[in-house]
Amino acid sequence: MSVPVFDRLAAELVPAAGPAVVSRGVLVFQLAPGELLPTVQRLKTEFGFDLFLDVTAVDWLGREAGAPRFEVVHHFYSTTHKLRVRLKMRVPEGEPVVASLIGFYGAAAFMERECHDMYGIHFQGNHDLRPILLYEGFKGHPLRKDYPKQQEQPLVPYRN
Question: What are the structural domain ranges in the chain?
């Protein structure tokens, strides 16, 4: 683990991203959704985080009143420094929108589609958010904590 890179990241991204914490060897930043693109640009161009690992979300249903329900989580890896970075953003249930990372990492297109399928998070700038894991016509988002697991879905004719 390259501690100087951790220290430099923590020191230089703090003004935009807020204080960083280390969790299980991963540097974690809590961002406002508007800070995502500038932070990712710096991670990729200045710090060498050349691999986008994944994007997912956490549903904090029942969180105290006024707190955003969802937390969108991005993971990055630097093949140069052998380090991982996690970026977290809280988004409200009424407007769960974050910027797409397609402009930086082409693979983001598919990962964002999966997160959209499962949680209903909209990725602004990704113009292909059609289902990738679920079928067309599936109602709801199955990884949301309020999704009724006994809900029956409409039958879809099998395509050859």
Answer: 3-124
Evaluate the CA torsion angle 135, 136, 137, 138 in order and state its sign.
Answer: positive
76 within 8 A of 51, measured Cβ to Cβ: yes
Task: Supply φ then ψ for residue 86, to 5 degrees.
Answer: -120, 130
Architecture (CATH level 2) of domain 3-124: 2-Layer Sandwich (3.30)
pLDDT digits (tens, 9 = 90+) for 44-86: 999 999 999 999 999 999 887 778 999 999 999 999 999 999 9
Q: What is the model's pTM? A: 0.90
Element containing residue 57 per DSSP (H, E): strand 51-59
Q: What confidence tens digit (pLDDT) does each residue in 147-158 have?
A: 987 877 776 666
Tokens of 47: 């710090």
Residue 64 corresponds to which amino acid? E
Distance from C-alpha of 29 to C-alpha of 47, rounded to nearest angstrom = 15
